[in-house]
Design goal:
The complex is a heterodimer of chains A (about 375) and B (about 260). With about 375 residues, chain A is mostly helical. Helix content of chain A is about 65%, strand content about 0%. Chain A has 2 domains: about 40 residues, no CATH class; about 280 residues, MetI-like fold. The structure holds adenosine-5'-triphosphate and magnesium ion.
């Protein structure tokens, strides 16, 4: 594209003028040695050099002590707590010893296999649901009907010769998953309606949305759970009873929805007026415009914020401890009351942390993948 | 192409748009003052006037993107009132092209075009896609059908926007400064498409400063200033012998550069 620079001197006038556009060259490949990389990224100023050294020393110090404690001196397996007491390092054996009540809570011990089946079905269903190939009604609807039927049968039992287990006895990881999934599945549509409602031109709709969002955001989740479990039943007509698990899920879902609504509202505000006008000018009505034009754009703008709250919702499930449900964290706390193993609670909590981390990390990785899909071939 | 292949016949007397004593306020500010205008089927009207004179406001009242507060607007026999059904009916008969294109960035070009036919007209997907390709060919960019709007040039985007409006097979097309956001070399490609559309007999109201275009296609020139219609005349008279001093001043300013 650039012209050849004519050589100076007598030949300048004779130099041929290049007509055709210059062929483009491949970009220069940068070969940077390790040393050069270090210089450029870690030691490029006195301050950075100092920070690098300090950080390196700290990481090395903690890293070495963690490796000593967690690996070199650790007890990996024993059924005898005394072995652990004598060891200088971590007692990972506590996980082998206690993982059943930690993962499954107070659910009857002999029925734990049912929870494993339910968990496997759950993870498989969620994985399939998140795969674009399966985003067809003809796959998703039967899939979820079948999955819910299997999971319900496994958790409650009472049919096919399975003993009945009340939802009050559910616990551990399956309980965490039920609460989390219920919260997001019930709460997300509500959050969209609340976000739209808050921007509505209809005064009544707007007032209801604002009131609900502001009042729910103003109280702690624990208060809402307490209400759902202890106060709400007092308002029900005589003889009517709503499952405690359902009340808890709905309470958590509304709490989740009120936060999520504000995130989504942020996305809605970012949609230019011209988009609404173009949709209206084509004759699209409010709901169709919202569904086809506004929401797809708004949700993708605020996807990071949405995922943020979904991850928070997963961890918020641990609040059910105050209403006597044993999610994975509460179950662990209860299990670690065992005087023989009590002193190894750190290892037990690290295990629970790892379980939470796996799920949260998977969620955040998945959301990054979604962003990549959304950005394919598009620029604004 | 499909419907309006007949030659131009602005002589038909049937009025498709009638604005009578239309007034509009933005808060305290009066943007339209007693607007009276009748547009016949197949007529091509070019609206011009200084910035802020109410041109956009007037044509946006025709498909109710803005609400007028006094007077009546009748489009294709339907009066614009608060009745939502009427508004949606009118909007599906009136296409609009905006200065800033307003394509839907999350949809491919073809989906931009098929959206309204499928969801407003309930046209089957296959049929809507055939129709969309037909109009993309008409605006000469069928090869862009599977790209996203962000991947097109401004001129191409505006032509997609025109095709999108035409896919609803409207009776009337409104253009609000369709070339003002374009680089000079792209203006012509858009104007060419509009000239072709005008030749096919479409009823058009075009707000534009492109006086060359106006001279070529307009049946009627409308000059607005300060919320009023100052002059309505065929282009031969409008450009050669305008009556109002305000029109003369405006024309001298716009034609000298
Ligand atoms: N939403 C609004 N709120 C308040 N005032 C407005 C609004 N829209 C337009 N106006 C005012 O109304 C007047 C007419 O605006 P309009 O957009 O119709 O002008 P225009 O003739 O299209 O001008 P331009 O050539 O700059 O597009 C202007 O003075 C403008 O400031
Ligand atoms: Mg304007």
């Amino acid at each position: 594209m650039t012209e050849i620079i004519a050589p100076t001197g007598d030949t300048a006038a004779l130099a041929p003028v290049r007509k055709a556009a210059r062929e483009s060259e491949p970009p220069p490949t940068e070969k940077i040695g390790a040393l050069r990389w270090l210089r450029r990224n870690l030691f490029n100023s006195p301050l950075n050099s100092a920070l690098t050294i300090v950080a390196f020393v700290l990481v090395a110090y903690w890293g070495v002590s963690f490796v000593e404690w967690g690996i070199l001196d650790a007890v990996w397996y024993t059924t005898d707590h005394n072995v652990c007491r004598q060891a200088a390092g971590a007692c990972w054996a506590v996980i082998a010893e206690k993982h059943r009540p930690m993962l499954f809570g107070v659910y009857p011990y002999d029925e734990h296999w049912r929870l494993i089946v339910a968990l496997v079905v759950y993870l498989a269903t969620v994985t399939l649901t998140l795969t674009p190939y399966c985003w067809k009604r003809s796959i998703l609807i039967p899939l979820w009907i079948a999955a819910l039927a299997v999971m319900g049968t496994m958790l409650w039992g009472g049919v096919f010769g399975l003993t009945y287990v009340d939802s009050g006895q559910w616990g551990g990881l399956p309980l965490t998953m039920v609460l989390f999934t219920g919260t997001v599945v019930v709460g997300f549509p509500i959050s969209i309606l609340l976000a739209l409602g808050r921007r509505s031109r209809l005064p009544a709709v707007k007032a209801i949305s604002v009131t609900l969002i502001e009042s729910m955001r103003g109280v702690p989740l624990i208060t809402i759970l307490f209400f759902a479990v202890n106060v709400f039943p007092l308002f029900l007509p005589e003889g009517m009873e709503i499952d405690k698990m359902l009340r808890v899920v709905v309470g958590m879902a509304i709490f989740f929805a009120c936060y999520q609504a504000e995130v989504i509202r942020g996305g809605l505000q970012a949609i230019p007026r011209g988009q609404y006008e173009a949709a209206e000018a084509l004759g699209l009505g409010y709901w169709r415009m919202t569904y086809k034009i506004v929401l797809p754009q708004a949700l993708r703008i605020c996807l990071p914020g949405i995922v943020n709250h979904i991850i928070a919702a997963l961890k918020n499930t641990s609040f059910v401890l105050i209403i006597g449900l044993f999610d994975i964290l509460t179950a662990t706390t209860a299990v670690m009351q065992d005087p023989l193993w009590r002193r190894f609670f750190v290892e037990a909590y690290l295990f629970v942390a790892a379980v939470y981390f796996i799920f949260c990390f998977a969620l955040s990785k998945y959301s990054q993948q979604v962003e990549r899909w959304l950005n394919e071939g598009r620029r604004f | 192409m499909t419907r309006q292949s007949a030659a131009r016949k602005p002589e038909t007397t049937e009025a498709v748009i009638r604005l009578s004593d239309v007034n509009k306020w933005y808060g305290e500010f009066q943007a339209l003052k007693d607007i009276n205008l009748t547009i016949k089927r197949g007529e091509r009207v070019v609206v011009c006037g200084p910035s802020g004179s109410g041109k956009s406001t007037m044509i946006r009242c025709i498909n109710r993107l803005e609400e007028h507060q006094r007077g009546t607007i009748v489009v294709d026999g339907i009066e614009l009132t608060d009745n939502l059904k009427n508004i949606e009916a009118i909007r599906s008969e009136v296409g609009m092209v905006f200065q800033s294109f307003n394509l839907f960035p999350h949809l491919r070009v073809i989906d931009n075009l098929t959206l309204a036919p499928m969801w407003v007209r309930k046209m089957p997907k296959k049929e809507a896609e055939t129709l969309a390709m037909e109009y993309l060919e008409r605006v000469r960019i069928p090869e862009q059908a599977y790209k996203f709007p962000g991947q097109l040039s401004g001129g191409q985007q505006q032509r997609v926007a025109i095709a999108r409006a035409l896919c609803m097979q409207p009776k009337i097309m409104l253009f609000d400064e369709p070339t003002s956001a374009l680089d000079p070399e792209m203006i012509k490609e858009v104007l060419d498409v509009m000239i072709e559309l005008a030749e096919s007999g479409m009823t058009m109201i075009v707000v534009t400063h492109e006086m060359g275009f106006a001279k070529t296609v307009a049946d009627t020139m409308v000059f607005m200033d300060a919320g009023e219609i100052v002059e309505v005349a065929p282009p031969s008279i409008f450009f050669e012998a305008p009556k109002s001093d305000r029109t003369k001043l405006f024309l001298s300013q716009i034609l000298t550069h």
